[in-house]
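Hey, can you fold this one?
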Amino acid sequence: LIVGEGEVLFHELLCGRLPEGQRVFTREDTKGKMLDLTTAVLPDFEGLELTFYPNMATYSSRSCPFQCTFCTETVYWGKYRKKPGKQIVKELLHLHRTYNFQLFLMCDSLLTPVLNDLAKEFAALPETVYWDGYLRVDKHTCNIETPLLWRQGGYYRARLGVESGSQRILDEKDKQITIDQIKTSISNLAKAGIKTTTYWIIGYPGETEKEFQALLDFIEAMKFDHVGAFAYFQEQGTPAAPLGDPISDEEKEERLGRLMALQQEISLQKNQFLIGKTLDVFIEGYNEGISVG
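Sure. Predicted structure:
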């Protein structure tokens, strides 16, 4: 069993340089050695039935330069590393030309550190590819000129880990953002033509019913297009682990149910508003006679 980043460990195992008889391996077995992403080769997808997938997944970085208290990204991946912008563009173009994909899901924990370079490179090219990935609310998203640049470069969907509608809980999670910044960022992304999906963590230690209601009120006011919500889970090695997991699973599930019921009502209202209208749409996939976009 290999725990964490696997390329270096698996190579060492195949070369017989790890202890015989040992069943579990971690970075400690290679003295913390991590993969240099500039040397990482792209997977070969030849022979795989790719028509089942609306987009192709790839990545430009590993880990995260931030440490939100609940998150395991730095625990799992170690130090943050990223590929140079020109390398990322070259790899995406190779995948586009080789497998005829135009949509890409960037699987990075956070795209923010590479977004500007990526957008500038693609905006200068005659070929067009579209990509989505995870974004952080910060000074960049609060400046309308920056999302406009991203959209010009092909960034069409932003996945934002907002996590809470309570400023106190945001501070407890060390998100380093404010409610006003979230509002400004969502507005700027919409103006730039970038669709958003927001993600929320329910039942963080110490979250009160009043603070959860603030989250519901925020969602009701903002009327997000897409929402993903998850119950808090205590992860060993994270800054929040010593806080325990005091809110019961039953209460988390009850809150999740209320949140998703609210979002379903918002989605229904937005869809009903579109009845009878003719719109330009961005098709992301097609399955069993149904187009999704």
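The first helix runs from residue 7 to 14. Let me know if you want another pass with a different chain boundary.
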